Amino acid sequence: MQFSLIDTQWGPFGFVVRDGRLVTTHLPDNAQRTRRRIAREWPGAVEDTKALPGFRKQVIDYFKGKPVDFNIDIDVSDLPPFRRAVIEVCRGIPYGETVSYADLARAVGKPGAARAVGGAMANNPIPLVVPCHRVLRTDGTLGGFSSPGGLTLKERMLELEGASTNGDASTRQRQPAAAC
């Protein structure tokens, strides 16, 4: 298992790879704090500053404001089936677009499970690649965001992508794909 930090314009972005597949990411934060979190969550992970060069470039490009489609293998096999399903559907939300928690619930075949979808998003192990920041409340307001930086970071990421955050969901929401 390897981990790495990427210097972005927004600060250090961390990630962990197992068997060539991404298992977790950490949005830009303090490098020392990110290293401690990775060591706590993935003991034994060894730093590899050259891991996943194509992914590294995509992350740098994203935080420069370039549209990116993260086409990297992920490993969410440790997650329960419902959370895996939510993660896979969320992964299909295109750059600059948003959907609601209720939309995701319907897309995974669990209408009325918007709160459970919110829980899955709050525990998303691969933020950015699985773009939980693109999931909003039905009324178009931000909802929550458990990454460092909280709602301010979520709003900043949506603004970077050109997605409206004015609460008018009708101008930016689309139905998520039923599967990725």
Tell me the domain tally.
2
The H/E string reads EEEHEHHEHHEH
The Cα radius of gyration reads: 16 Å
Oligomer description: single chain
CATH level 4 superfamily of the largest domain: Winged helix-like DNA-binding domain superfamily/Winged helix DNA-binding domain
Sheet with most strands: strand arrangement: 3-2-1-4
Distance linking N and C termini: 26 Å
> What is the number of beta strands?
6
Please give the share of residues in helix: 25-40%
Please give the largest β-sheet: 4 strands, mixed
CATH class of the largest domain: Mainly Alpha
> What is the count of DSSP helices, taking H or I runs of 4+ residues?
6
Overall pLDDT level: 89
Based on secondary structure, the structural category is: alpha/beta
| CATH topology-level name of the largest domain | Arc Repressor Mutant, subunit A
* Binned strand content: 15-25%
Shape: globular
Outline the low-pLDDT stretches: 167-180
The CATH architecture designation of the largest domain is: Orthogonal Bundle
Structural summary, described in words:
33% of the residues lie in helices and 15% in strands. It is α/β, with parallel strands linked by helices and 180 residues long. It folds into 2 domains: 2-63, no CATH class; 81-171, Arc Repressor Mutant, subunit A, CATH 1.10.10. The strands form 2 sheets. Strands 3-2-1-4 form a 4-stranded mixed beta sheet. A two-stranded parallel sheet has the order 5-6. A hairpin with a 2-residue loop joins strand 1 and strand 2 (11-18). It is globular and about 40 Å long. The two termini are 26 Å apart. Mean pLDDT is 89; it is low at 167-180.
